[in-house]
Design goal:
The structure holds 2 protein chains of 2 kinds. By secondary structure, chain A is an alpha/beta fold. Chain A has a domain of 137 residues: Glutamate synthase, alpha subunit, C-terminal domain (Pectate Lyase C-like). Chain A is built from 2 helices and 11 strands. Chain A has an 11-stranded mixed β-sheet, with helices on both faces. By secondary structure, chain B is an alpha+beta fold. Helices cover 27% and strands 25% of the residues of chain B. In chain B, a hairpin with a 5-residue loop joins β15 and β16. In chain B, α7 packs across α8. The longest helix of chain B is centred in the middle third of the chain and has 15 residues. Classes of the chains: A alpha/beta, B alpha+beta. Chains A and B meet through loops of A and α12 of B.
Chain lengths: 258, 408
């Protein structure tokens, strides 16, 4: 159905003949149908665990609002546009995202931003374990992940590029867990608030922010403030986690290579 | 995870199953169950004031996550189910046929007084693969007055454990799926929605429910091997793999437990019974032994806790569950729900609490909780950190505290 502003509204809470909730395949089929008909503004109501929402879709003007609890792999392989979640997202949000923007007005689960290659993810609240694992950048394109609250262990594990910012809003203790940046060999992690040496994983080190880092962090903080109508206290210092080496396994497997 | 008995597995491929427990039937995966992608789902709910919850609520929770399962097993456990027989052990069985039932009853009559027995009504669903087992329950009291009992030197509970183990091991075609007081397990091979209809779960009411939907990875999907796996009043729903199964199995077998269900998950149930009931360890200490911190992290604990942590790691090194897991554990007296993820949080687990604080939930995915309690406040437990909810007391631990906090 369409409303007056040519926004497509899809009720994901409807039941089929057997009384089962709308299957994620059917939900995604309807999203793709709307997109193929040139409808770029889509509202999903009563979402309850449907997976892979808007995966591998995307155009610069696409805008999908999600009300409820979207399932795992929200916006996987996203190629552009904006997904905005009014609620919490589950695990593996923004899996291998290429481009676009995902905004979560709540928390996101474990493995948020797995292997992302571009785009921006903004999470208002907290996230879980292994956030930003194996994210990467190439040819000037890289992902940015911003978490407003805290994250748990293995933040930016095996990170090869891109930027992560954890802000620790309303978080009295350190906003990151253990093994931060374990095995990372590219990219940078900004942590706003407490971070001690023992929290770093192997291959990661603490560094001061240079001018380009400070500008990038300020840009992400401004985006967060705009997305959630928040005001972030700039007096809390930022710490930067970066890789010790861009090729940590050099010589480990073949001593003849340089 | 290991298949112990391959003697009857057919090398020529599928043969029509003759019985629900036939081994060749266990390993053949029907076409409709061929894995696509997924993993087990777990869900639990509990009312702290003890008010009863209809089975339809847990059915809705677990079927909301139907994308996780592949139809090779599901099950439910309810606590506070038999107020009229709360002091008797309720032994619920899956029988091959009348003969295995007769053999089991013969054994039972030697060990226990039968107070009451009844057929558990079942309703085979069109999508499920027959043959179906006969499901029967017995309310029993152990024959503790006899000379034979005294000679065993066992406590009443250990006597019951030995009875269950001996039936599961030696009576052909008979599996005791639950043996606790005031609780029962309803499980089988099928999708969660099929098993819920098979037992008509909505006709039962309990103050706590746990459930499981299965995606077996390296053990066969079959009726008795479905979760929850239960001994006495313990029941465990498990999502994950226990890669340390061999070591854990040695520990429980040395303590007299028999692993007969062809799945790695059963050692978890026996470990809880061994460590909490028999060794009287607190729940927090048991959880720490199962999902311990790294030694380098233990070094940062205050001295008393450091000593305790090191002692637990050394004393119970065979109880360390290596590999990814998240488990829901139930027990009675008082009815308690424990939710625990492995020490790296490699399997999902979220908790939820209703606005009035009376209903507490645990599940693999948030949607399972939100589907029955939309206003629920959601939080995630930390790796290796148990959340504990007790009847009458509420949330004793949220799973985000320091280890050993709260003597439980």
């Amino acid at each position: 159905m369409k409303d007056d502003n040519s926004t497509v509204v899809i009720d994901a809470g409807e039941r089929n003949q057997l009384g089962h909730p709308l299957d994620y395949r059917e939900l995604n089929r309807r999203i793709r149908k709307a997109l193929s008909e040139g409808q770029e503004r889509i509202v999903l109501m009563n979402v309850m665990g449907q997976r892979y929402i808007a995966s591998a879709t995307g155009s610069p003007g696409m805008r999908i609002e999600i009300h409820g609890t979207p399932g795992n792999d929200l916006g996987a392989f996203l190629n552009g546009g904006t997904l905005e979640v009014f609620g919490n997202a589950q695990d593996v949000t923004a899996n291998t995202m290429n481009e676009g923007r995902i905004v979560v007005h709540g928390n996101s689960g474990d493995i948020t931003g797995l292997a992302a290659r571009g785009g921006t993810l903004l999470v208002k609240g907290n996230s879980g374990y292994r956030v930003g694992i194996h994210i990467k950048e190439f040819e000037g394109s890289g992902p940015s992940l911003v978490i407003g609250g805290f994250v748990n262990d293995y933040l930016g594990e095996y990170m090869a590029g891109g930027t992560i910012l954890v802000m620790g809003i309303n978080c009295p203790e350190s906003p990151v867990g253990l093994n931060v940046g374990a095995g990372m060999h590219g990219g940078r992690i900004f942590v706003r608030g407490g971070l001690e040496g023992h929290q770093l994983g192997p291959g990661a080190c603490l560094a001061e922010l240079d001018e380009r880092d400070a500008a990038a962090a300020e840009d992400l903080i401004s985006q967060y403030e705009a997305a959630f109508a928040a005001t972030v206290d700039r007096t809390v210092p930022l710490r930067k986690v970066m890789p010790l080496d861009s090729r940590p396994f050099r010589g480990h497997y073949d001593s003849t290579t340089i | 995870m290991y298949q112990h008995d391959t003697r009857t597995a057919s090398p020529r491929g599928p043969a029509a199953p003759r019985s629900f427990s036939e081994r060749s039937y266990l390993v053949d995966i029907p076409e409709r169950h061929k894995p696509r992608h997924g993993s087990c789902g777990i869900a639990g709910c509990m009312n702290i004031d003890g008010s009863l919850i209809s089975g339809s609520k847990i059915e809705k929770m677990i079927t909301t996550m139907s994308e996780r399962e592949n139809g090779l097993g599901s099950g439910f456990v309810a606590y506070g189910l038999f107020p009229d027989f709360a002091d008797e052990y309720c032994m619920q069985f899956l029988f091959e046929n009348e003969e295995s039932q007769a053999l089991t009853e013969e054994t039972l009559s030697e060990w226990v007084y039968m107070i009451k027995d009844e057929k558990v009504p079942t309703f085979p669903q069109s999508g499920m693969s027959p043959p179906f087992p006969l499901v029967w329950r017995y309310f029993v009291r152990p024959k503790t007055g006899t000379e034979a009992y005294v000679r065993t030197g066992l406590s009443e509970e250990d006597y019951m454990v030995r009875l269950v183990m001996s039936i599961n091991e030696s009576v052909p075609g008979s599996y005791c799926v639950s043996s606790g007081k005031d609780m029962a397990v309803f499980k089988g091979s099928g999708y969660a929605r099929e098993i819920a209809k098979f037992y008509n779960i909505s006709r039962y009411k309990g103050c706590m429910w746990l459930s499981h939907s299965r995606f077996p990875t390296n053990s066969p999907g079959w009726w008795a091997g479905s979760h929850p796996i239960s001994i006495l009043d313990w029941s465990v729903c498990h999502n994950g793999e226990i890669t340390s199964y061999g070591v854990n199995r040695k520990l429980v077998e040395m303590a007299g437990y028999k692993c007969t269900l062809l799945t790695d998950s059963e050692v978890v149930t026996y470990l809880w019974d061994l460590m909490v009931r028999r060794h009287r360890l607190p729940v927090t200490a048991t959880a720490f032994a199962m999902a311990p911190w790294y030694y380098r992290d233990i070094e940062r604990l205050p001295e008393d806790e450091r000593r305790l942590a090191n002692q637990l790691r050394i004393t119970y090194k065979e109880a360390f569950l290596n590999g990814p897991f998240s488990i829901l554990v139930g027990r009675s007296d008082p009815v308690t729900m424990i939710a625990l993820a492995d020490r790296k949080k490699l399997r999902p687990l979220v908790m939820g609490e209703s606005e009035d604080g009376n209903s507490v939930y645990a599940a693999s995915e948030e949607c399972a909780i939100k589907s029955v309690q939309y206003d629920a406040q959601i939080w995630a437990t930390r790796a290796g950190n148990p959340a504990v909810v007790k009847l009458g007391e509420g949330i004793v631990r949220r799973g985000t505290e320091a280890p050993f906090l709260g003597a439980i």
